[in-house]
Amino acid sequence: MKTKFLNKLKYFDYGLFIPFLILCLIGIVMVYSASSINLSYLTGKTMQYFIRQSIYVILGIVLTVLFAQTNPRWWRRPRMLLFGWIFLMGLLAYAKFFTSAINGANGWINLKVISIQPSEICKLYLVMFLANLFANYTAKGKNVFCKRIRRKLITKELFLFLMVASMLGLIVYAPDFGGFGISFAIVIVMYLAYADINYKTSTWIIVLGTALLGFLAYLLQFTTILSNTKLGYIIQRFLAVFDPFKYANSSGKQLVNSFYAVSNGGLIGRGLGESIQKRGYLPEPYTDFILSVIAEELGVLGVIVVLCLLAWIILRIFMIGIRSKSIYAMYFCYGVGTFFAVETFFNVGGAIGLLPITGVTLPFISYGGSSMIVLTIALGMVMNISATQKRGLEVEVFGK
């Protein structure tokens, strides 16, 4: 037993695990710093989010190690993938139609102990589903899926397309534009990896798919915009990106205060715990705008450390996929790498005004149970692939 345990440690991917641990520790400290002052004003208690985030991190570490060690064959079982789709569609529908809106979106299911955000789970599910789908088609011959689509949409391919499209449709209907954007990016990148960038086929699929989903999103959101007392609020969020100070008292308020936080921090920051903007100016500074608090308290250098650690994890995940001898493992790593990269880009872009604010968390740093659990499971699964590569069993475990 001891020899078996030591053998597993030998193939453990510390190049992924150690940066992940450092980010989690930074996240715990910054969640406490960003939340404690406002909690003391409201309740007199300062440790609430610190304790919860610590629990999420401990749970996440356990899940990472667990999924890095378990037999990965069950990931590809068709029955599990089908039941997973049914289960997640049920969660998305329940969240939309039977829960109260939070910040204008029906995207959370409150279980008292933890709030589940189904769209977070969908990101990992789409990676698992598409990796299995494209690996199976690749095994049947180069671009079999593309050739069938060019001829006609046969029943099976149409059903598979509708499975993905319906999931994306419910996510955007919540509405959760951040979750939709990340999920859609996962679909596009994994398809391009499968199509081997066959430009004619890829371009037509992307254009038609984007047009269809965009039209669906427009129809679903049109009634929301009309029924909102602040007509055009969604449009104002986009306009605020281009001129936030013009909308400083409305949709641009969050971004303006984020700018102030980054400006106040300078190169080395004001010092841990000394942020001004977290004191009621930035809404929920321990989630969407935690990078702004890091910039104000730890400066540009602190932000660079966090982003370099995230970049290391993302690039290493892609490298594991590139050197993979298993087509399935390659697709899976590309999907998870895209998931991490786009989520980071959305959060950072929202904080510095490159993108509209979408409510996306900063991986392993922001407060949140659903996000932490899904991210750590995904990381553990990639570490599992890395371990099988080192042992030379990748093709045997995942297939060609």
UniProtKB/TrEMBL annotation:
Source species of the chain: Ligilactobacillus murinus
Subcellular location: Membrane
A Pfam family matched in the record: FTSW_RODA_SPOVE
A GO CC term attached to the entry: plasma membrane
Lineage, top ranks: Bacteria, Bacillati, Bacillota, Bacilli, Lactobacillales
EC top class, as a word: transferase
Name the UniProt record assigns to this protein: Probable peptidoglycan glycosyltransferase FtsW
GO molecular function: lipid-linked peptidoglycan transporter activity; peptidoglycan glycosyltransferase activity
Main localization of the protein described in the UniProt heading: membrane
Reactions it catalyzes: [GlcNAc-(1->4)-Mur2Ac(oyl-L-Ala-gamma-D-Glu-L-Lys-D-Ala-D-Ala)](n)-di-trans,octa-cis-undecaprenyl diphosphate + beta-D-GlcNAc-(1->4)-Mur2Ac(oyl-L-Ala-gamma-D-Glu-L-Lys-D-Ala-D-Ala)-di-trans,octa-cis-undecaprenyl diphosphate = [GlcNAc-(1->4)-Mur2Ac(oyl-L-Ala-gamma-D-Glu-L-Lys-D-Ala-D-Ala)](n+1)-di-trans,octa-cis-undecaprenyl diphosphate + di-trans,octa-cis-undecaprenyl diphosphate + H(+)
Keywords: Cell cycle, Cell division, Cell shape, Glycosyltransferase, Membrane, Peptidoglycan synthesis, Transferase, Transmembrane, Transmembrane helix
